[in-house]
Specification:
Elements lengths: L1 H4 L3 H6 L6 H12 L2 H14 L14 H14 L6 H9 L4 H36 L2 H4 L12 H51 L28 H10 L4 H17 L6 H7 L4 H32 L18 H9 L4 H37 L5 H25 L3 H12 L1 H12 L5 H21 L8 H17 L6 H11 L6 H10 L9 H27 L2 H21 L7
Helix pairs in contact: 3-9, 3-12, 3-13, 3-15, 4-7, 4-13, 5-11, 5-13, 5-23, 6-7, 7-9, 7-14, 7-15, 7-16, 7-17, 7-19, 9-13, 9-15, 9-16, 11-18, 12-15, 13-14, 13-23, 15-16, 18-19, 18-20, 19-20, 21-22, 23-24
């Protein structure tokens, strides 16, 4: 893989845009199957039951459906290598606003990548600490480490291992590693599910009313007080008690975030690495199919074991506080038999490496492609470019580790990224697709205002970052519109080329008229209603895929049959309205 990656820049960063869509889809799914997120989701499932399927809408998880239906092919038609490079297809390559817009998207991408590296780093350290107790390692370490930094020590060790192959092999190495790790994770997840079902035979789960249903009212309605008081305190501290407001905010933010397209991270890099726009759509759709049933087999399996044997587990951190993120490693350590235990640990370590390596690759792409080659050394040889990738990779890892030391928990980082940082990203990135008048100046000011507000919000607000989102959105939207109107429209030639190449729907009438004046045979994209219909069906199907293993492991056979029936009907319709109509 190292030799393949050394051929040229595109081979290192993009796999030469020659990898098949199903390989990239497996890789993308493997990157999303991260250890920190899985720890978080097991804790959510334990506390909120089947209602926990909604909480990943914080990302939002259904953005994959929007990309699958139309945004992936729009993005891939640019033939760019990064999100910053893509902006030249929308705004052109000349002018202060264009350069400023590229700088701001690079800044956002790097802040996001550093956040995700720290997020993975913290989760990995917590996980490893369970299986390799510090008292076993301490005699061989020539220095003392305070208890609160033991997870960080483990994080550093295993981050170095992941860095080695990620930096040397580039995208080729990352995709091959991810495919292998996905195979291991599949075996591990199914093993956990079967073990949980075996333990559940003849036993009763002591659960609050409403835990077994995904449906909810204005309030959450889960009363843990008489069963496990500390779980009730967890719900209060999370701020999800009035679930109706929380869900509405997630949905509102999620729709706009999904319409904005993928954030400039490993997900975007995998889409840009596909061979064609058609394969980009297939790859994104494939991710949900192969990720959700497998991942949730592990999540519900570990949740069932944790509920059955909660009294035997230690869910307190070194400071004596309850930390339900420890349920995953604690349950694995207590109930997996030899062999299966090794498989699960290997798979989850691989899951960390997948997320880490994909994020690292994205950060390298932005620094090398959009900063070094464009503004520092545009004539760099292939050898020099690869060497710069190595150096940048090491620097990015060091910064990620430093930020990991500053983070308190997985949930803290997650909430800030999805509620705060992404709140500043949404407005400008929505407008770039759907409004012809939007220009590079508006993009810069919208992104700058959003990111700056997101960075300041933690110092001036309390509570869930998600609840700040409307304010962040309004700030960013206002700055986007004012910045746009303060500068002339994008060059007409750039707009016409973008419109005829990408073919978006939205508010493009003046550009359409200009294009038709030159080419009367040109047909505008009139698929808005079809795409919106497919998105709704896709989200229903995604929820059914998530619930499938949960109903199966819990033995809820009637609900399982209904779930499968809905999924089959939706799949039949999407075959005719989406798959059969895919085009480049």
């Amino acid at each position: 893989m190292k030799n393949k990656a050394k051929k040229n820049k595109d081979s290192y960063l993009m796999g030469g845009k020659s990898l098949p869509w199903y390989m990239l889809g497996l890789s993308d799914a493997s990157d999303m199957f991260d250890i920190s997120g899985t720890m978080w989701m097991v804790s959510l499932c334990f506390v909120y039951g089947l209602k926990s399927i909604w909480i990943p809408w914080l990302w939002p998880s259904f953005n994959q459906v929007f990309m699958m239906m139309f945004l992936s092919k729009w993005l891939r038609r640019s033939n760019a290598n990064t999100g910053a490079e893509w902006l030249t297809t929308r705004f052109g390559s000349e002018g202060k606003g264009v350069h400023a817009s590229q700088i701001i998207v690079i800044a956002f991408a790097l802040i996001s990548c550093f956040g995700f590296l720290a997020y993975g780093f913290v989760g990995l350290g917590k996980f490893v600490e369970i299986f390799i107790p510090w008292e076993v390692v301490q005699p061989y370490v020539p220095f003392d480490i305070p208890a609160q930094y033991i997870p960080h020590f483990y994080g550093v060790v295993f981050t170095i291992i992941a860095t080695f192959y990620s930096v040397l092999g580039g995208m080729h190495s990352i995709v091959l590693g991810d495919v292998i790790k996905y195979g291991i994770m599949t075996l591990a997840c199914l093993a956990i599910a079967f073990i949980a079902m075996d333990h559940l035979q003849g036993q009763t789960l002591h659960l609050p009313q409403g835990w077994r249903t995904p449906f909810f009212g204005w309030e959450l309605g889960l009363d843990w007080k008489s069963i496990l008081p500390e779980v009730h305190q967890k719900i209060e501290s999370d701020g999800y008690g009035i679930f109706g407001i929380f869900f509405s905010m997630m949905l509102l933010k999620g729709v706009f975030a999904s319409l904005a397209g993928p954030a400039p991270n490993y997900d975007m890099q995998k889409i840009l690495s596909t061979r064609s726009p058609k394969e980009a759509s297939k790859m994104t759709g494939f991710v949900s199919i192969i990720l959700l049933p497998i991942r949730y087999s592990m999540i519900i399996g570990l949740t069932v074991l944790a509920l059955l044997y909660y009294a035997q587990l230690n869910v307190k951190d070194a400071s004596g506080n309850y930390d339900f993120e420890l349920l995953l490693p604690g349950t694995i350590n207590a109930f997996m038999p030899a062999g299966i235990l090794g498989l699960v640990i290997t798979g989850l370590m691989g899951a960390f490496m997948g997320t880490f390596s994909g994020t690292l690759n994205a950060a390298q792409a932005y620094i090398v492609n959009d900063i070094y080659l464009k503004h520092i050394n545009s004539q760099a040889s292939t050898k020099k470019t690869i060497q710069m990738n190595y150096l940048v990779g090491l620097v990015v890892v060091i910064i990620g580790i430093v930020l990991g030391f500053m983070a308190k928990s997985v949930n803290d980082i997650l909430q800030w990224i999805v509620g705060g940082l992404y709140g500043g990203y949404v407005a400008a990135n929505c407008l770039k697709w759907y409004w012809w008048r939007f220009n590079a100046n508006g993009f810069f000011w919208g992104m700058a205002a959003g990111i700056f507000a997101a960075l300041l919000m933690p110092y001036f607000t309390t509570g869930l970052p998600l609840y700040w989102w409307p304010l962040l959105f309004v700030i960013s939207l206002t700055a986007s519109i004012l910045g746009t109107l303060a500068a002339p429209p994008t060059d007409a030639r750039v707009l016409k080329k973008f419109y005829t190449t990408v073919k978006p729907w939205g508010f493009w009438q003046p550009v359409l008229e200009a294009v038709k004046a030159e080419n009367p045979a040109f047909e505008a994209n009139k698929n808005f209603k079809k795409d919106a219909f497919n998105v709704v069906l896709g989200i229903i199907s995604q929820l059914c895929l998530t619930l499938l293993p949960m109903y199966w492991v819990l033995g809820m056979h009637q609900a399982l049959v209904i779930d499968v029936g809905i999924m089959l009907v939706v799949s039949f319709i999407l075959k005719r309205t989406w798959w059969d109509k895919l085009e480049d």
